[in-house]
């Protein structure tokens, strides 16, 4: 009897490994928290960016959902932040190596929620050092889904504003006035006209270099020759499903064979 169980456990190992691998891949998504907030609230959001590959992530572009108004961002040492109000995008770009394999980085910012209840989709574009781009723009069933936040009037009763205070439903709290202590929060609208803000690159010489380092003005403008990992991710998930299914079938066949041999 012990032999039978040992053989079954040995056959189950590949299936377990495949399942664990699939779970790890499926959970390593770019996410924006919180998942619920209130209408019209000044909400502090945090985008978590994990690295799924063996190369570093050196740039992340986040597109604001329709009706959401970007207000402020938290500076991160080693990263520059660029806000494109026309395109509705925020770009974080690493000054050094960026986010290494097996690591993740959090990016915190403040947004004024839409006045109407509904769902907000956060489209994100993750750039890797090898030139590939993962577009987190699909629905919840896609290999690379975008993160979602549900905006509701009831959630607005407890939603936190930029000051960390409770905001009433539908009530928009104005940003901090000059002189207030807003630790680690920078207001893009308050940047000096001469471009002296520490978090935004000032050197714009060289049109080609500037285009390479600037924020993506529109998700649709991602160059056609830029490699996207969406098909690769879908192929990887399909392979894992097939491996898991074959392992389960092998376990079933082996169990039946052992049972038949025991009866003989």
From TrEMBL:
Is Chaperone one of the keywords?
no
Note the Gene3D superfamilies from the entry: Uncharacterised protein YcnI-like PF07987, DUF1775 (2.60.40.2230)
Q: Where is this region: Disordered?
A: 160-233
Q: What are the TM regions of this chain, as residue ranges?
A: 239-260
Residue ranges of the YncI copper-binding domain?
A: 29-140
* Keyword hit for Transmembrane helix: yes
According to the record, the signal peptide region is 1-28
Q: Compositional bias (Low complexity) at which positions?
A: 160-177, 185-233
Q: Name one Pfam family in it.
A: DUF1775
Sorted alphabetically, the keyword list is: Membrane, Signal, Transmembrane, Transmembrane helix
Q: Fetch the InterPro entries from UniProt.
A: YcnI-copper_dom, YcnI-like_sf
Return the protein name.
DUF1775 domain-containing protein
Q: Which organism is it from?
A: Saccharibacillus brassicae
